[in-house]
Amino acid sequence: MTMQGVSDHPSGGAKTPLRRDSLQQQIYERLRNGLVSGAFLPGETVSSRGLAQSLAVSAMPVREALTRLTAEGALELTSSRTLRVRVLTPADFDEVTTIRVELEGMAAERAAGQVTEEDVARVRALHGDLTAAAETADADRYLAANAAFHSGIYAAARWPLLLSMIQRLWLTVGPSIRASVPDHLHMATSMRFHDAAVEAIGARDAEALRAAIVGDIETAAKDIRAFLAEEAGATD
Amino acid sequence: MTMQGVSDHPSGGAKTPLRRDSLQQQIYERLRNGLVSGAFLPGETVSSRGLAQSLAVSAMPVREALTRLTAEGALELTSSRTLRVRVLTPADFDEVTTIRVELEGMAAERAAGQVTEEDVARVRALHGDLTAAAETADADRYLAANAAFHSGIYAAARWPLLLSMIQRLWLTVGPSIRASVPDHLHMATSMRFHDAAVEAIGARDAEALRAAIVGDIETAAKDIRAFLAEEAGATD
DNA sequence: CCGCGCAAGCTGCGATCGCAGATCAAAGAT
DNA sequence: ATCTTTGATCTGCGATCGCAGCTTGCGCGG
Asked: What does the pLDDT average to over A142-155?
């Protein structure tokens, strides 16, 4: 039951059940998508056999995908040999945020320096999706669109390693963002930075783009961090 | 035959064949150690069954370790379904180097701000090892000591995620460094930066430590990049 | 003696089975 | 009724087998 809504990769066709590269790769991408898009909450338990059954494959490729996610810090292995979505402490979250500012700032700056017209058009389209999602106030849809928007910008930097490292960080913070977003619904203030980012990338203004991205990250982080601290305060 | 010299984890006892956490974790760490310490060259082919046999385990845990390394960009899958150590293009190398400067600079700066006396002592000891290795001009030993020295500094920042991201980058560049180091033997000029780093960390001087680390990275990168460009020029 | 072709051997990947721990629930003892 | 204990059933992990591609080398035809 936990895997609902993790299905749609924006690219793929409609009904394709599962087939393209290796199974474990597809499963990994699905799960990553779900982690970023809010399909999982921190602390939620995940089992390889359970996932395998709901995906109608054997436990093997699921295991390898989960192993990767665990190694990347998105999942964690409890003392009772149970796998669950990692629960970030406020300190963990601060660390991720600091690195995100550095890496995503770098990607934004570099992207602004070499965007093509196509890149700009693509980012504008993603911005449209994001705006539409924000208006419906559908948290999951908003989170997915937000991730796509940011990745769309960073992709213009054409530094695949940097992009993959950024996406790893999103993997870690995704569930915590998901947990905190229904509270404050900071979408409105966040959209201000998104608008600025679109304008900056259109103008090829590296400094403005970096500022917009960093502002977006830090503004959202402030709310999320407060949520995590409060949650950690409660005995839970 | 390819696994010679990857054996000794500095911590473990002598004869311990393989036992502690999960097998795949141990194998992963061994391989990572080997990649950073110069046991592998770019383009070198690696097979899961072959490794499994030389480690006297089944192919399963080796596969998962290799999968992880592939996902992290240390290995790559050729069109003929063969796994080999990734070959970096000069552009790849530039990307890694830029990110390294940013991340390792950040780690150095933060480390200087909160080193304990024990940290300083530990780094000094590692510096001793490194100096000794440089004097013997044993490339592999030097590379291993160099990695330990840098990690020792970054560990003082006490940001595990940052450390793991840095180590992932080392994984990627390790073999290329190994391929180029016998040429120029830049150990001498590199040791200048290492000396400066030890002094800076002792003085808790964040700016000086960052400068030493960044200088070390960029100076070495200049030589390595030239080597890669030359190698790419040759038809190979 | 040279060149083509087929088969045996590699490769990674997926499925299935078995094992050791840990949890949880139901049954038995006080 | 409450506490204890035990077994059924989870968990992740390792081993083994089978499959589909690709590479390689031996043997056959020219």
From this structure: 96
d(CA B200, CA A29): 43
Say how far A80 CA is from C28 C1', in Å.
28
Using CA atoms, how far apart are residues B144 and B165, in angstroms rounded to an integer?
A: 18
Dist. CA A83–CA B198, nearest whole Å = 41
| A71 to chain B: closest CA residue | B68
- Spatial neighbors of B214 by CB under 8 A, at least 6 apart, are B101, B104, B105, B108
DSSP state, A211? H
Joined tokens for residue B135:
């004097």
State which residue of chain B sits closest to A64, comparing Cα positions. B64
Q: How far, in Å, CA of B173 to CA of B191, rounded?
A: 19
Spatial distance between the Cα atoms of B195 and B131, rounded to a whole number of angstroms: 9
Q: Which residues of A30-65 are buried (b: 16+ CB within 10 A; e: fewer)?
A: bbbbbbbbbbbebebebebeebbeebebeeebbbbb
Cα angle, residue A128 at apex, residues A124 and A133 outer, rounded to 5°: 145
Backbone phi, then psi, for B226, in 5-degree steps? -60, -40
From residues 31-90 of B, which are strand C contacts by CB within 7 A? 46-50, 59-60, 63, 66-67, 77, 81-83
Confidence of residue A233 (pLDDT cuts 50, 70, 90): low
Q: Which two tokens stand for residue B214?
A: 């960044």
- Number of Cβ within 10 Å of residue A19's Cβ equals 8
CA distance A84 to B236: 47
Please check whether the two domains, A23-85 and A90-231, share a CATH topology.
no
Domain B90-233 part of CATH 1.20.120.530: yes
CB contacts of A108 in chain B (<8 Å) are none
Residue A13's CB is within 10 A of a number of other CB atoms, namely 6
User: CATH class for domain A23-85?
Assistant: mainly alpha
Domain boundaries, chain B: 23-85, 90-233
Level-2 CATH architecture, domain A90-231: Up-down Bundle (1.20)
Question: Which stretches of chain B score pLDDT less than 70?
Answer: 1-20, 182-185, 233-236
Indicate the SS3 state at residue A1: coil
B95/A68 CB distance under 8 A: no
Mean pLDDT, chain A, integer: 89
- Say what the pLDDT of residue B194 is: 96
